[in-house]
Amino acid sequence: MQQHTDRVAIVTGASRGIGAAIAERLATDGFTVVINYAGDAASAEKLARRIEEKGGRALTARADVADPDAVKRMFDATEAAFGGIDVLINNAGILKTVALAETSDEEFDRHFAINTKGTFNTLREAAKRMRNGGRIVNFSSTTLALNLPGYAVYNATKAAVEALTHVFAKELRGRDITVNTVAPGPIATDLFLSGKSEELVAQFAKMPPLERLGQPDDIASVVAFLVGPDAGWVNGQVLRANGGVA
Predict the structure, then answer these.
(1) What does the angle CA 156 – CA 162 – CA 168 come to, to the nearest 5 degrees?
(2) What is the pLDDT of residues 37-74, one digit of tens each?
(3) CA-CA distance, 154 to 151, in Å (whole number)?
(4) Name one GO molecular function term (predicted).
(5) Residues 141-166: pLDDT tens digits?
(6) Considering the domain boundaries, does residue 246 fall inside one?
(7) Catalytic residue among 37, 120, 154, 192
(8) Residue 3 forms part of a structural domain
């Protein structure tokens, strides 16, 4: 574990998958990490203990990002514990593939509430609370470039996130805060693998020229770059980390 910095990072949806990998990587890089989760307290606490056992600092924070009051409480708790916020990683999201014509109102609303409004809620709070010199990383998806059947509503939520990124980066002018988006390709997480046959998973794995599924650590490395000192001139961009699939 590296020496601690005084920088504090909130990672949403961090109890498992890509979010957990990001939290661990940032802790290794010296960040104090706030592990946000919506329901899986056991996994979040286990991750926090693992980080602390390696010499890092971590706090778990239960909050449904779709609820603006819950997001405000999470920011309040972070400031109370650590004095401020320097990094926001908007990783929380859901995915259910279904044809547009068969999508219920409830499923449409659920996707936009978490994927889009959840990102909006944290960005709005960050605009008021983040320390100057901060870093924000949102999450989109390479599915936007693939236009696969069944992804219409999910893609719409992520297209909105990319739009928020481009505009918000300019609205924070003068504060030395960068806002970027990572758009992963197929990553071997429960979110991606759930409901897919072995044959379909193998098909996705062969799509990139690198002929494999991405791993959570692949994305954590990209995020670590964007929040680190070497990415200070990268702002308002969408980085498609997908092994060359699109």
Answers:
(1) 135
(2) 999 999 999 999 999 999 999 999 999 999 999 999 99
(3) 5
(4) oxidoreductase activity, acting on CH-OH group of donors
(5) 999 999 999 999 999 999 999 999 99
(6) no
(7) 154
(8) no
